[in-house]
Design goal:
By secondary structure, the protein is an alpha/beta fold. The protein is 26% helix and 14% strand. This is Leucine rich repeat transmembrane neuronal 4 like 2.
Length: 511
Amino acid sequence: MCPASCRCEGKIVYCESGIFQGIPENITTGCQGLSLRYNSLLVLLPYQFAHLNQLIWLYLDHNSITDINALAFHGVRRLKELILSSNKITYLHNNTFSAIPNLRNLDLSYNQLRSLQPGHFYGLRKLQNLHLRSNGLNQIIIRTFLECRSLEFLDLGYNRLRSLTRTTFLGLFKLKELHLEHNQFSRINFFIFPRLTNLQTLYLQWNRIRSMSQGVPWTWHKLQKLDLSGNEIQMLDPTVFQCMPNLQTLNLESNKLSSVPVKAVAAWASLTTISLAGNSWDCSPSICPLMGWLQNIRDSKDISMICSSPKSVQGERVVEVVKNQLTCVDVSNIFSTTSLVALTSTQMENITFYNDLTTDLGTESPFQRLTPLPGRPGEKHGKATESTNVSSTLTAISPGPPTPLIPQLHFEHMAFHKIVAGSVALFLSVALILLVIYVSWRRYPNTMRQLQQHSVNHKRRKKNSRQEQDLNSQLQEYYLSYHSNSETMDPLVNESRPCTCTISGSIECEV
């Protein structure tokens, strides 16, 4: 049987977008799927679905449910999927879902829950996906998820959580994906996740995180993706990433990073994708370890990395500043073991920084084998004294007079490509024009001759018009002279006789 205002497809009943305030009557007892979405349900009463003991999934989202009785789901033991999102649920009784132990997917997102209690999910040992997004949660009591031993996906995003305890996620041994984005965390100690040994993806973006720490070291062998974008992180703790040996994707966009410690960069050995845009990068030699590492990564999204300091390069791309201004020293291009070059103070600072980096990493810098360098930038050493000491040391080491080497600048491949492309385009344009002229001359010879004849005629007409203009300029006054008397007028009236007409300019004509 199919209730009125519903649509039935076999054992699936759709009673959606109606005015139902309760469960419709005459639903077949063999119903396996029931959708009551977009209705006006207010309360779920005890044993309300008991006559539908074959139900496998039940959709009750987008209603106005405010209260769920503790016995509401008794009698639907086979239920595997329950959707209660987008309602007005403010409170859950303990053991509300204990009568449906086969539940795999539970969606309580977009409700008004403020806290979670351990009894809320009692008995859900087969639950795999739990959605609690956008509830306004401000606390999670310890051992809340202890019964959810099979949980693989947990969404706690878009809530008001400020802190987590070490036992918050106790029992979630199989959890693979955890969402904690858009909460109110100010700091994160990754030691609160000690038993999430199978976690692969962790979302912490758009919180208020200023610092991260590891606490007691332990290793996340399976963590592959970590999203920390949209926070207020200023420094990275290398110990955090040293505990993530298989991390592949890291998002640090829109933070307040100015540099990355050398040990943190060294811990990113397994990274294949990283996002670093939207930070306050300091384009001094401290950026060199990061930029050197980015050159070897497969998918580095460093295109939008912008310099925030010093003022001379504010607003410019970090990659271009490092390349054009030689911020980072290339050992192979500046020094050789046989001949050395006198360095400027800026290059000396870069090399000193490089020595410090290699010391921190436990390796030896080639500069340290060549000559003792002055202290770090900021120590009280005059520039003149530094250059004098370095020059004297280099002179003592080299067998002959020092041969200055010009540092080899990195060839700008992009500029070379532009020159080649422009040359090819110019050559093709000229060749195309010549080809058009040649084809026209071979295929339409008459047309070419007509064009030449037209050009010659045009020149002749232009020359004749110029001569006429010269002649008219000379003939400025015209007049006619004649003698008027009676003897002369009579013959002109009676018979024709020759008459002489004189025009100024010594031109005569006879009429």
